[in-house]
Amino acid sequence: MGTSGVVMFTTHFFSPLSQSQLRTSSRVPPRIRCSASSTSELTPADKLPVSTSVTGGAYDFAKATTSLTNELISSPKRVTLLRHGLSTWNSESRIQGSSDLSILTEVGEEQAERCKKALENIYFDQCFASPISRAKQTAEIIWKGRETPLVYLDSLKEISLYHLEGMKNVDARKIYPKEYTIWREDPASFHMNGRYPVRDLWIAARDCWKEMLLSPGESFLVVTHKSILRALTCTALGLGPERFRSIDINNGGICVFNFNVRGEAMLEALNMTSHMYSDHVYPG
Predict the structure, then answer these.
(1) Which residue of 42, 78, 169, 264 could cross-link 46, Cys pair, CB 3.0 to 4.6 Å?
(2) CA–CA dist 120, 143 (Å, integer)
(3) What does pTM read for this prediction?
């Protein structure tokens, strides 16, 4: 442990008990007192009142999780993330990236309808969506009948993969073996057209979180793509771009985050898909 703080654990032992005291106290475990001393004190801005926390014990530990806003937000928020339905390029095993040429298949439209039904009991203040067709179509199906208009964010667009976009995975592996292998096995080091697409995606995800969390409302729906969803999930959990492939999200899969007023995240659900195979409806 560094010099910034010392944690001491003290166990208190008691004198022998009578038989009646022993029977009474046998159900009570020994008390362990944890006390901490530190060379630095928390500033008022670092302290979060118990009543406003939704992330377990995060409110009484300095920097326990990562703030995505670096400033207080108006209220705790709940954000439901959803991946678009099956697209034409998904079904053809093509690399989609930021291309807008891939659209929902009939199956994808049915998946979007299933998502709509599954979420019908949940109130959302706003729906943020990627403006790319396959996500836009999904959001339009799910949001149909709701009062507030959809909000399209460029920061929710999918990762840009330049000349790999539109290629079948099997062809990209043959034609660009080095680039494809790095993309699949070490995405954080994947370099193309003078850029690092996955690292750029992490920047976009952080910007997107801040924009959404500082928006009015307490419950948001977000409809977007797998790679940016991976980045949103990882940045909320404080994970770097080297963890890009540690999370997978299916078409129509749902993730849920709760945020306290410091903009710190707690993952409630990851890649929920029960609604894709049944008539399951999530409670409001």
Answers:
(1) 42
(2) 9
(3) 0.79
pLDDT, tens only, 128-177 = 999 999 999 999 999 999 999 999 999 999 999 999 999 999 999 999 99
Please state, in angstroms and rounded to a whole number, the distance separating the CA atoms of residues 78 and 87: 28
Radius of gyration of the chain (CA): 24
Copy the structure tokens of residue 98. 């930021």
Phi, psi dihedrals of residue 227, rounded to the nearest 5°: -65, -45
Q: What share of the chain is helix, strand, coil (3-state, %, to 5)?
A: 40, 20, 45
What are the residue numbers of the active site? 84, 158
Banded pLDDT at 65 (limits 50, 70, 90): confident
Angle at 121 between CA 120 and CA 124, to 5 degrees: 80
User: In this structure, what token pair is assigned to residue 256?
Assistant: 């849920």
Is residue 127 within 8 A of residue 222, CB to CB? The reply is yes
DSSP run (H or E) holding 272: strand 265-272
Please write the tens of the pLDDT for every residue from 186-219.
999 999 999 999 999 999 999 999 999 999 999 9
User: 73-104: per-residue pLDDT in tens?
Assistant: 999 999 999 999 999 999 999 999 999 999 99
Query: C-alpha dihedral over 56, 213, 75, 53, to 10 degrees?
Result: 10
Task: Name the phi and psi angles at 192, rounded to 5.
Answer: -155, 135
CA–CA gap between residue 206 and residue 230 (Å, rounded): 12
Q: What distances in angstroms separate CA 98 from CA 53, 162, 273, one per listed residue?
A: 37, 8, 25
What distance in Å separates the CA atoms of residue 268 and residue 258, rounded to the nearest whole number? 7
- Please give the DSSP secondary-structure letter assigned to residue 194: T
CA distance 116 to 160: 28
With vertex at residue 86, the alpha carbon angle to CA 105 and CA 120, rounded to the nearest 5 degrees, is 100
